Amino acid sequence: MTSTGQAIVDEGRYTVSRTVIIDATRDRVWQALTDPEHIAKWFGQRAVIDSLTVGARGVFSWDEHGDMPLEIIEVDEPDRFGYRWGQADDPDLIRGTDVRFALRELGGSTELTVVETGFDRVSNVESERRDALEGNRQGWNAELDELVAYLEAKAA
Model pTM? Predict the structure, then answer.
């Protein structure tokens, strides 16, 4: 793996972003991002997505964080995928954030960029917004490292 750095927080825009280069084809990365069987191997312990269409619902589950409901907001296979997700106590995702993945083929590798926006919806309290930004910055550092390890181990 070649990484272009750790996740970056833009407090003014309430965003977290990170780009990594993965030694895997774009199709394999796409499957790892969109297929619940693969998602559960690197992102939480369980994943359910009703269908891969805009408006479809699902849930990601972590033993330590609980269930995170989601709604698909973008599908442009194999280039872009996005969802809005939030907490279990917000099933309509009013306080949810938007996660968008962009995939770019680089020979046999893939450049993957994740951008999470909407932290201004998380809370009316600025310190809670900043805590959410920082928590998800740390989360994307860990989770994308797990995705890279999963895909690169699977290729070996």
Answer: 0.94
